Amino acid sequence: MQWTSILAIYFLIWVMSAFVMLPFGVRTSEEAGIEHVPGQAESAPAEFRPARLVIRATLIAAVLTSLFVLNYEYGWITPVDINPFPEPPS
Fold it and tell me: How far apart are CA 86 and CA 45, in angstroms?
């Protein structure tokens, strides 16, 4: 597998993991015990910490990309293994 393909797969997995990680660890103003800002939605986060999100997404994407590349090289799971419609016996 070429390094550019690995980089593209890493980027896609990073974006997906960042979006999946967005709701975790979020606390509203009420949960954090902070005064509510007028005009702010009640469900809005009290603090947004993008550095923490970037670090988590980077670690998760590195692990998942490594597993993907290793599976590609060694063929642990193939499309035949996950086929929901196997060939019927003759």
Answer: 47
One-letter amino acid for residue 33 of the chain = G
Q: Alpha carbon of 33 to those of 7, 28, 38, 39, 54: distances in Å? A: 42, 8, 15, 17, 26
Give residue for tokens 């196997």: 86
Sorted by where each begins, the domain ranges of the chain are: 3-74
CB 21 within 8 A of CB 53: yes
The residue behind tokens 């597998």 is 1
CB 45 within 8 A of CB 26: yes
pLDDT over 80 (residue 70):
yes
In this prediction the pTM is 0.79
Q: For residue 6, how many other CB atoms are within 10 A of its CB? A: 15
